[in-house]
Amino acid sequence: MANVSVYNMEGKQIDTIELNDAVFGVEVNEHLVHMAVVQQLANNRQGTQKAKTRSEVSGGGRKPWRQKGTGHARQGSIRAPQWTGGGVVFAPVPRDYSFKLNKKEKRAALKSALTDKVANAKLIVVDELKFEEIKTKNFAQVMKNLDVNNGLVVVNENDVNVMMSAKNIADVKMALPNTINVYDIMKAGKVVLTKDAVKTIEEVYA
C-alpha cells in the first residue's frame, strides 16, 4: 500500500495515511481512461445543429408557373433547394453523440486515473477542510498553502461554507466522492482529498 502524507490547512504535514491498492494502486489502463474521457465529452455535447429540408420550409405550396410554354426551366416549388430561401438538400438534424461504457469499465478507468495521480505525486490528502464563514480569500489561502493552482478538491460532505468559498475560484473544482469522474481527475493539476473522502472512495470503489 502507498503511504501518502496528510497535511493540515496550513500546508504542514501532520500524519501519513495508507491508501488501498485496490483503488489507488491498480495497473493503469490508458485505453479505458481515454474512453471514459471521450464518453464524458461526447455525452456533454448538445448536438443542436438543425437546418430545414424542402418539406419543412414554409411556403411554396403551389407550382410557380405552368410546366411548358414560359421559356423558363420547369419548377415545382419556390422552396426547392436551388431557390433562394429554399430548403437544404441533406440538412443536418439534432444528433445524440452519447455512448455507454459498462460499469466495470467506468470503475476501472476511475481507479486508473486515481492511481496515475498517486504515482505522479499529484494527489494530496488533507486532514479536513472547515471554515467558519463563506470567504473565498480563506479557501484561496488554503490552496496556496498546499501549492495547488489547478485542482480538484473532493470533500466527504456538502459543507456550504467550503463549497461556496471555492465557487469563485476559476481553477478549483469541488466534488463529492459520488460525483468524481475521470475527466475532472485527469484535467486537474492536483487532486486534493480529505481523509474522510479517501475512506468513502475506498469503501465505494474497492
UniProtKB/TrEMBL annotation:
<dbReference type="GO" id="GO:1990904">
    <property type="term" value="C:ribonucleoprotein complex"/>
</dbReference>
<dbReference type="GO" id="GO:0003735">
    <property type="term" value="F:structural constituent of ribosome"/>
</dbReference>
<comment type="similarity">
    <text>Belongs to the universal ribosomal protein uL4 family.</text>
</comment>
<dbReference type="GO" id="GO:0005840">
    <property type="term" value="C:ribosome"/>
</dbReference>
<dbReference type="InterPro" id="IPR023574">
    <property type="entry name" value="Ribosomal_uL4_dom_sf"/>
</dbReference>
<keyword id="KW-0694">RNA-binding</keyword>
<keyword id="KW-0699">rRNA-binding</keyword>
<dbReference type="GO" id="GO:0019843">
    <property type="term" value="F:rRNA binding"/>
</dbReference>
<dbReference type="InterPro" id="IPR002136">
    <property type="entry name" value="Ribosomal_uL4"/>
</dbReference>
<dbReference type="Pfam" id="PF00573">
    <property type="entry name" value="Ribosomal_L4"/>
</dbReference>
<feature type="region of interest" description="Disordered">
    <location>
        <begin position="44"/>
        <end position="79"/>
    </location>
</feature>
<keyword id="KW-0687">Ribonucleoprotein</keyword>
<protein>
    <recommendedName>
        <fullName>Large ribosomal subunit protein uL4</fullName>
    </recommendedName>
</protein>
<comment type="function">
    <text>One of the primary rRNA binding proteins, this protein initially binds near the 5'-end of the 23S rRNA. It is important during the early stages of 50S assembly. It makes multiple contacts with different domains of the 23S rRNA in the assembled 50S subunit and ribosome.</text>
</comment>
<keyword id="KW-0689">Ribosomal protein</keyword>
<comment type="subunit">
    <text>Part of the 50S ribosomal subunit.</text>
</comment>
<dbReference type="GO" id="GO:0006412">
    <property type="term" value="P:translation"/>
</dbReference>
<comment type="function">
    <text>Forms part of the polypeptide exit tunnel.</text>
</comment>
<dbReference type="InterPro" id="IPR013005">
    <property type="entry name" value="Ribosomal_uL4-like"/>
</dbReference>
